[in-house]
Protein: SecY interacting protein Syd
Amino acid sequence: MYRTPCVNLPQRYVDKWQQQYGHAPASQELYGVASPCIVENRDDTVLWLPQPFTPTASLEKVEQALELQLQPDIHIFYTQQYAGDMSAEFGEHPLTLLQVWSEDDFIRLQENLIGHLVTQKTP
Structure:
């Protein structure tokens, strides 16, 4: 199976985080929000690890709602695993790679994608 860089990103992120901090990635923003990713709660912080996305999911509803086809990498990026959001940089630009934290979060992601893409669609 062809594995794009985005599929390997969560594990690379976890490896780098663990090397730097000595524990699983941590998030204060996600503390108290249920997820299969949670491995430990510490004070006001949750430690997390990526988990397989179950049940099988797709972004077909987004495609159908907007009558468009999304890039295959987008399907892979958002439906292969649950994970916490990941901070990164592109050149000198800091960014956050939003992830799917839970099954409920996946529903919100689809709604947000539809809303965003509707505003970008040209008549």
Remarks:
- The chain has one domain: 5-113.
